[in-house]
Design a protein that fits this description.
- The structure holds two protein chains of two kinds.
- Chain A is built from 15 helices and two strands.
- By secondary structure, chain A is mainly alpha-helical.
- Chain A has a single domain, classed as ABC transporter involved in vitamin B12 uptake, BtuC (Orthogonal Bundle), CATH 1.10.3470.
- Chain A has a two-stranded antiparallel ribbon.
- Chain A is globular, with a radius of gyration of 20 Å.
- The termini of chain A are close together.
- Chain B has 14 helices and no strands.
- By secondary structure, chain B is mostly helical.
- The N and C termini of chain B lie close together (11 Å).
- In chain B, helix 3 packs parallel to helix 8 and helix 9 packs across helix 13.
- Classes of the chains: A mainly alpha, B mainly alpha.
- At the A-B interface, helix 7 and helix 15 of A face helix 5, helix 6 and helix 14 of B.
- Chain A: It holds the Pfam family FecCD.
- Chain A: InterPro entries: ABC_BtuC-like, ABC_transptr_permease_BtuC.
- Chain A: Belongs to the binding-protein-dependent transport system permease family. FecCD subfamily.
Chain lengths: 345, 341
């Protein structure tokens, strides 16, 4: 629906601006980390945090930092980066500014499989965490394939709007299936699953970090190596073909990576949407459309968004903890509406 | 946006009245079936005698009068309301994807419901229903406001996208309220969507609103037919389009709001049924509206019946069940409208 006009796609900002933006974002993430430690039920002041980080904290402070807060913050950063990059890739290859793994229903598909799996385990058994990203990938991949097939037309290929409408419908279908499944759960599992669906990263441990980290660490550099290809692709398929790129194969590879990033993130964090939409958009405004800068900036904005949402969720309605996904939705859906209103047709 | 036939309004009164009569017969049969089947099957003859010769000492009679009958009648009213609301919206906006679930009315009403449960616990059903009218209005107003602000105006796709985003916002807000005030237990059954808990008292409050709105819809159906040809043509034919739009909007809010207050946010009835009705009786809203009402009732009553007998004693939420029928249809519409997209 929203296609970057070619001059805009070629708009190049100074590299130095890019570095400045990224440094500022990095600093903001660190500031949010400090702020995040200083809020909530148990908090550490910046000074205590510094002492604890240097190893001079009390046993209790170390426990809070290392066992409770740090894994949570690391997960926020990883999930934010993963979802934002995934959105950035999807927007790049579909040339559709509203593409996002949440809006396209891929998060829901990944979630369904994870929920199915978790709910077959009894609450006391430890779920093999490392398996979850794989299962999520399975669900997300199957959903992506389904959406792709349903919106494919032999005469016109994939049209961005049809893709999104199909995504919305498939997402709604998966949610319905989920409601039916959830009725069979025990009360304990029901609570677990519904918290998970709302996008909750409060209970994460280092085990979750370990299960997610390899995915992000392997896939992110791969995406960065593809930034020049994404630049070419954003000029339009015809031009990309003219420049000698085997478009459809590369597109498929990148789509697989995007699904992998989104699904593995969702397998740990639960249903967090809109990050893949907001990250790339703000990034494009800050550093322009060249993917060498756009990709890392999107990832940083995604991380900042999730860590901010997590902190707000713990702080705004104390003692109730608002699941992170809900906070992101409250920030994200007005932004989506704003983009929609601004879109030229 | 609609099919070619809508260039000229032609109605088929004989065929249409036949179809409506047939639908009514089907509806009556399914009402009796829905009363008699369930966790405990009850003979049809007992259903008959319970309704016409009620014996308060008979347990089967009590089950019918206290549980099954209000539930089925709730389904009838809710189905008619959603379907007619959808029909009016589709005619008014000339948008084939219009439905109270897709356009933010249901989620707005749900949000109003969450606020009522949290801040005014023990509010009577009457006020609860009025609040959902307001909530539905806010949801619809926001979706229309946003999509008409867009450059290039409203298109079906934009309405659906705006509706989806707004639903995400409203449901996040409702969920936060639910968590903070710990009202999950009391509101969960309602969100899942079902007519299981319908009480006589609710039906009595809802009945006059729904009947008045349905009559209103039939009264203005001719004007809606005109409007469905386009604003210019309707004006040329002497319609006071602003008045018609205002009245129609109020009718939609009352219908969708009262249905949501009983059954929860069930989507796709309002999308599916008017299309079916248009297919059966042509493009004249004087026939589409009554036909939608009957078919909508039929769909919800049958969905509720299947929800009970698929996996007893557990019940499948009818909202989920209807979505499973509605989604393929939505996909079909999304593909058919490709020139528009």
């Amino acid at each position: 629906m929203i296609r970057e006009s070619i001059p805009e796609a070629l708009k190049i900002r100074q590299k130095s601006t890019g570095w400045l933006v990224m440094t500022v974002l990095g600093l903001l993430i660190i500031a949010m980390f400090v702020l995040s430690m200083n809020t909530g039920f148990i908090h550490l002041s910046p000074l205590e945090l510094w002492e604890t980080l240097l190893g001079h904290g009390t046993a209790k402070q170390e426990l809070i930092l290392l066992q409770f807060r740090l894994p949570r913050i690391v997960i926020s950063v990883l999930v934010g980066a993963g979802l934002a990059l995934s959105g950035c890739i999807m927007q790049g290859i579909s040339r559709n500014a509203l593409a996002d793994s949440g809006i396209l229903g891929i998060n829901a598909g990944a979630g369904l499989v994870v929920v199915l799996f978790v709910s077959t385990y009894s609450i006391t058994a430890e779920v093999p965490k490392f398996a979850l990203p794989f299962l999520a990938l399975l669900g997300g991949g199957a959903t992506a394939a389904l959406i792709y097939t349903l919106s494919y037309r032999r005469d016109g290929g994939i049209q961005p709007t049809r893709l999104i409408l199909t995504g919305i419908a498939v997402g709604a279908g998966i949610s319905s299936a989920m409601i039916v499944l959830m009725l069979k759960l025990s009360e304990q599992n029901y609570k677990l699953v519904s918290l998970w669906l709302a996008g909750n990263i409060s209970g994460v441990t280092w085990r979750d970090v370990v299960s997610l980290l390899p995915w992000i660490v392997i896939l992110i550099p791969y995406v960065f190596t593809k930034s020049r290809f994404l630049n070419v692709l954003s000029l339009g398929e015809a031009r990309a073909k003219g420049l000698g790129v085997s478009v459809s194969r590369e597109q498929l590879k990148l789509l697989a990576v995007a699904v992998g990033l989104a699904a593995s993130s969702v397998s740990v964090s639960g249903g967090i949407g809109f990050v893949g939409l907001i990250g790339p958009h703000l990034a494009r405004r800050l550093v322009g459309s060249r993917h060498e800068l756009l990709l890392p900036t999107s990832a940083l904005i995604g991380s900042l968004l999730v860590i901010t949402a997590d902190t707000l969720g713990r702080w705004v309605l104390q003692p109730t903890e608002i699941p992170t996904g809900l906070v992101v939705a409250i920030i994200g859906s007005p932004y989506f509406l704003y983009l929609l209103a601004k879109a030229k047709n | 946006m609609m099919t070619k036939d809508s260039q000229e309004v032609h109605s088929r009164p004989f065929a249409a009245s036949g179809i409506i009569a047939l639908s009514i017969i089907l509806l009556v049969i399914s009402i009796f079936l829905a009363i008699s089947l369930g966790a405990a099957d009850i003979k049809l003859s007992v259903v008959w005698s319970a309704i016409f010769h009620f014996d308060s000492s008979n347990i089967e009679h009590q089950t019918i009068m206290e549980l099954r009958l209000p539930r089925v009648l709730g389904g009838v009213m809710v189905g008619a309301s959603f379907a007619v609301a959808g029909a009016i919206m589709q005619g008014l906006t000339r948008n084939p994807m219009a439905d109270s679930g897709l356009l933010g009315l249901n989620s707005g009403a749900g949000f109003a419901m969450a606020i009522c449960f949290a801040f005014f616990p023990g509010l009577s059903f009457m006020y609860l229903m009025l609040c959902t009218f307001v909530g539905a209005g806010i949801g619809a107003g926001m979706v229309y406001g946003i999509s008409s602000l867009t450059r290039g105006g409203m298109t079906p796709v934009r309405l659906v996208l705006a509706g989806a985003a707004l639903s995400a916002l409203f449901s996040a807000l409702s969920e936060i309220i639910t968590l903070h005030f710990n009202i999950g237990q009391s509101i969960a059954f309602w969100y899942a969507g079902g007519v299981a808990g319908t009480k006589w008292s609710q039906l009595l409050i809802m009945f006059p609103w729904v009947v008045a709105a349905l009559l209103g819809a039939i009264i203005i159906s001719r004007s809606i037919s005109m409007l469905s040809l386009g604003e210019e043509i309707a004006k040329g034919l002497g319609q006071r389009t602003k008045v018609v739009r205002l009245v129609a909007t109020i009718l939609v809010l009352v219908l969708a709001g009262s249905a949501v207050s009983v059954v929860g946010p069930v989507a796709f009835v309002g999308l599916l049924i008017p299309h079916l009705a248009r297919y059966l009786v042509g493009v004249d809203y004087r026939w589409i509206i009554p036909c939608s009402a009957v078919l909508g009732s039929l769909l919800v009553v049958l969905a509720d019946l299947s929800a009970r007998i698929i996996n007893p004693p557990q019940e499948v939420p009818i909202g989920a069940l209807i979505s499973l029928i509605g989604i393929p249809f939505f996909l079909y519409l999304a593909n058919k409208e490709r020139r528009e997209l």
